Amino acid sequence: MADNTNAGFETICIHGGHVAESNRAHLTPIYATSTYTFDSAEQAIAIFKQEEKGYVYGRFGNPTINEAEDRIALLEAYGLTNADGTPLQLKAILHASGMAAITTMVLSNVKAGDKIIANQSLYGGMQELVDKILPGLGIASIIVDFHDINKVEEVIKADSTIKMMYLETPANPTLQCIDLASLAALGKKYGLTVCADNTFATPYLQQPFKYDVDFVMHSTTKFLNGHGTAVGGVVIGRDLEKMNGIVTKTHRLLGGNSNAFEAYLLTNGLRTLSLRMDRHCANAEKVAAFLAQNKNVAHVNYLGLKSHPDYEIAKKQMKHPGAMLSFELKGGFDAGVAFINKLKICISAVSLGTCDTLVSHPASTTHVGVSRENRIKYGITDGLIRMSVGIETVEDILADLEQAID
Ligand SMILES: *Cc1c(COP(=O)(O)O)cnc(C)c1O
């Protein structure tokens, strides 16, 4: 199943992008090969001239990788149409990591002298790229709170060198949500390339291409793979000429390609995306409700609670508020450390989106190098615990949390 048919989301999860294989294997094999053969010199010429379709070299493409790419493109396009009513066609390019996908996307679209306008809440890796690498290439970024649409417009209007709008919703790790519809429309009004990191939501909960977004990126490491078995990333675009042109060129030349084994793990994980997301979300709701009434918990940060400042935005553009949450232990830093040490089922680890519930205490781990003052300014308080709620039996997760919080 290779095109945007009327198939349902779950059917695409299972069959999307699958191409029959010459040995009639049910599943696409792991094509562990660095190069491909030509039947004749004439065929080689035709393939190089792009008159005939065919694989050439592993960095350029691979059938196992291709299946994962086409499946993700179909999922992001699911149910969406162009202005003329025809089904939306997207192209996805799989990368070695989310950061590789983001880098390809950025360097395909901006050059020295151009600026990026980005939301204040970004994944740490993207924040560092913006702060430490892009300025050296002559690409500056302006960080604005994208909740304030008027302010965003004011900034864009005042600087014609701004070429790209970059956003992430919900954002990692703050869970801030921003309004995709108005931001994408604003970006288009001023001719910007609009890019959205959809890692936290997945296409099951949110489809940024419903709006005027040009590119969507994912760290496939998270919910799309879903099992924590491989690092990967993908960039998806709606301008097929650009995707087949400069984006493909940049991807090939930066060399951040994925590999057949990890693409296979991703394709396999995608088969259960909607089943997993339903359970992740249902469990997260129960965990949030449990934490909200626990006497040792000061505050729960979850998009499904009315107390979350972005509750309404999430409700408007997401099918469900997702499986990520954080909460503040009243006991502060020491309570955070004690909590992590007492866990028996939940796993102490960074990353997110795996079947297992993953829990981290940023103040003692990811943010240990940041001064306490700055850390608290970013919302990473002493007793903050971040949770990616898994798909275990929810009563077991709740019991584990209860005994660890006590
Ligand atoms: C993890 C993550 C990334 C980076 O992806 P890697 O696969 O680790 O390179 C980018 N954006 C978001 C929102 C993430 O959670």
Number of domains: 2
End-to-end Cα distance = 51 Å
Overall SS class: alpha/beta
Globular, elongated, flat, extended or rod-shaped: what is the shape? globular
Helical fraction equals: 25-40%
CATH class of the largest domain: Alpha Beta
How do the SSEs run, as a string of H and E?
Answer: HHHEHEHEHEHEHEEHHHEHEHEEHEH
CATH architecture classification name of the largest domain: 3-Layer(aba) Sandwich
How does this model look, in words?
- The chain has 2 domains: 9-30 and 61-270, Aspartate Aminotransferase, domain 2; 277-405, Aspartate Aminotransferase, domain 1 (Alpha-Beta Complex), CATH 3.90.1150.
- The model has no long low-confidence stretch (mean pLDDT 96).
- Helices cover 39% and strands 14% of the residues.
- The protein is α/β, with parallel strands linked by helices.
- It contains 15 helices and 12 strands.
- The structure holds pyridoxal-5'-phosphate.
- Pyridoxal-5'-phosphate binds at residues 97-99, 123, 125, 168, 172, 197, 199-200, 219, 221-222, 231, 233.
